[in-house]
Every structure is written in C-alpha cells, then in structure tokens.
Amino acid sequence: MKQLHILAYLFLSAALIGCGSKEKSEEESEVGRKKYEIEKNPVDTIVLRKQSFNSQLLSNGKLRALNKSSLKFANTGIITQLNGKNGSHVEKGDVIAVQETRDALLALEQARHQMEKAKIELEDKLLGYGYKISDSLHIPHETMRIARIHSGYNDAEAQLKSAQFTLDNCFLKAPVSGRIANLSTKVYEYPTGDEFCQIINDRIFEVEFAVLETELNDLKNGQKVLVSTFTEPEKKYSGQVTEINPTVNDKGQIMVRAQFPNPGHLIDGMNVKVHIENSIPDKFVVPKSAVLIRDNQEVLFRIDRENKAMWTYVHVLFSNSDSYVVVPNQDKGAELNEGDVVIISGNLNLAHGSGVMIKEK
Asked: What digits encode the pLDDT tens for the residues 242-267?
C-alpha cells in the first residue's frame, strides 16, 4: 500500500512539471511575438527628391485704406440733415451732411440784390463814357476797369461769390467714393472736434510691415505677398510689394509696404500677418515631422534595405510653416541621396537600427 502511494505521488509530480514546462514555453513564445511586433514599428515615409522650396518670411502689419479723407465743415452750425452713418457707402460728390442754411441763403439773396444794383451803376458809368454795356467787347480795357470800380460792380461780384461759397460749405460732400467712418455727430447737434467724419476708400488696402536687415535680400518691388487676419489665419489674400524704405530704423528693421484688393469684409486698422514667399529650386524638402533633435543635433531616420531605421545627422537650412530644407551633416559623415526613404511619422521613439514596418497607403 505504501508503494502505491509513492507511485501516485511520483506520477502527480511529473504531471505538474509537464504543465509548468508547457506554460513556460507559451510565455516565452508570447514574449518573442511581442518583441517582434515592437521591433516592427509602423511608420509613414516619403521618397527623398530634390524640389523647389517655398521659403516664407513672416511679419505683422496693420491695414490702412489706400485713400482716406478727413472731412469737416468750414463754418460752425447745427446739423439739419444726415445722409449716412458709419459704414455707409457713398459715391464721389454725394452729400453726406447739411448744416443750417438759413443765414447763408439770406446772405446770398442780399448779395444778388447788390449785384443787380451794381449792374445798373455800371451801365450808368459806361453811358457817361459814351458806351453801352452791350458793347462790352469794344469798350477799352482801362475804361471798363474804371467803370467797374466806380460802380461797385467788382465788390458786388466778390460778395456774391463769397455768399455762394458760404452756402456751398453748408453741404459736406464726399471727395472720393468709399465708406463713412468716425461719424459721431447726430442731427440737430453741433459738430465737435477737428473732424466731422472720414471717407475711407477700402477697395484697396495698404499694409505696412517690418523686416530685418538680413531678410532684405529676399524682397523686391512687385513681389507676391499673402495677407491673413488673426481671426481667420487659414484664409490668405494675395497682393504685392509696392515700397521698400531705403533706410534702417533704430531697431534694425526696414519698413515695407504692400497693396492688395479688399475681399469685402476687411476693415481699416486691422492687425494682420504678412507672408512673403520665395521659390528656391533643387532642395531636399521634408515635412517638419521628419526632423528630430537628438543629443542637441538635428537628425532624421532613413530606412535601409533591411527595413531598419538609420540615424542620419542633418542641418536645417530653411523652414516654412510645414517643411524644412535639409542637407547632410558632413561633419558627422552623414549623406543624403535622391531616392532615400525617409521616415516622417512614428519616429519619436526609434533608435538607430530599429526595425520598422512601412504603413500601407
């Protein structure tokens, strides 16, 4: 009986050892599979080719309407009529506002009466010289001059012109087509301040911005610029450089002006971003995501024939909003060639020689 217990114990021990070996084998297999999956890091790639690079010079500026007129009445007086408000569009010559005209009309009427009286006096003077006013083309110049002075005709004519001018000044007219701005006076109020309103022709905008001395070589008159607002940075409006100030200010900056048509919703005084692009041919261009900083050096990963990531030192020469121009860091013995496969995503945790798997597109 004792021998049977011993045999049973040995059989059970053997079974347990077999199960343990099987579980250990399965664990080792699972570890190996996971290690294989980790080594096959999924990545996105591009094939390196030389191409043109659009370098971007960025600056901030402020919009200014190309034509802006400040208007005010020549004389003081209460406003009796307004034909617009801030933002209203007016054409050149339109009447924007009217001052009280009663006194001006009365002065004009008096001036006309004086003119009629002076005409009669002039006729009398000419008759004294033996001429009729209807013969004015044949009257000697000096005789006519003396007759006009003695009759008061010249004074009456000047007063009539002055009265008409005063009446005209009661009507504030738009000198250019545009929109009314900075109008604060209401009907039956006296205008206050040095300015009644402004007329802004905002069909064309001018933007002034600053560039550094080192950026001057990238600029020229007629060069294309793109303008975007801070509220809608994704929308860009095309214009061109019109002026480059040939002097450097105390901040080491050069002031530049550009013009572009108003798409319809931009307003005077807006703060904007200015983008100036230059096309640089025959460069290796990669997305910004392809370049990493390792050991304070710029690097990217190429893929070799064995699908392994190869750590490659580079220098970034130019950049824009989404791309870099790169060259190999020859001090590190690096090289780049057309046709190289460069990793552009999934590269953050890669090490030199890591196995990778290119994602299917």
From this structure: 999 999 988 889 999 999 999 988 99
Asked if residues 259 and 240 have their Cβ atoms less than 8 Å apart, the reply is: yes
Which tokens go with 282? Answer: 């025959």
**CA–CA distances in Å: residue 48 to residues 181, 183, 296, 298:** 54, 59, 24, 17
Give the CA-trace dihedral at 329, 330, 332, 337, to 10 degrees: 70
Tell the residue number behind the tokens 């040939």, with chain if given. Answer: 246
**Cα distance between residue 80 and residue 188, in whole Å:** 6
Which residues neighbour 4 within 8 Å (Cβ) at sequence distance 6 or greater? Answer: none
Answer whether 200's CB lies under 8 Å from 268's CB.
yes
Longest Cα separation, the chain: 175
pLDDT digits (tens, 9 = 90+) for 162-185: 999 999 999 999 998 999 999 999
Q: What are phi and psi of 15, to 5 degrees?
A: -65, -40
Backbone angles phi, psi at 334, to 5 degrees: -80, 160
What's this model's pTM, rounded to 2 decimal places?
0.58
User: What does residue 288 show for φ and ψ, rounded to 5 degrees?
Assistant: -60, -30
- Is the separation of the CB atoms in 243 and 221 below 8 Å? yes
Check if the beta carbon of residue 260 is closer than 8 Å to that of residue 225.
Answer: yes
Measure Cα distances from 152 to 117, 186, 320 in Å.
Answer: 9, 43, 78
CB-CB contact of 344 with 309 (8 Å): no
- The alpha carbon of residue 151 and the mean position of all alpha carbons in its chain are separated, in whole angstroms, by 65
Amino acid code (one letter) for 21: S
- The torsion angles phi and psi of 304, rounded to 5 degrees, stand at -90, -175
Coil, helix or strand for 293?
A: strand
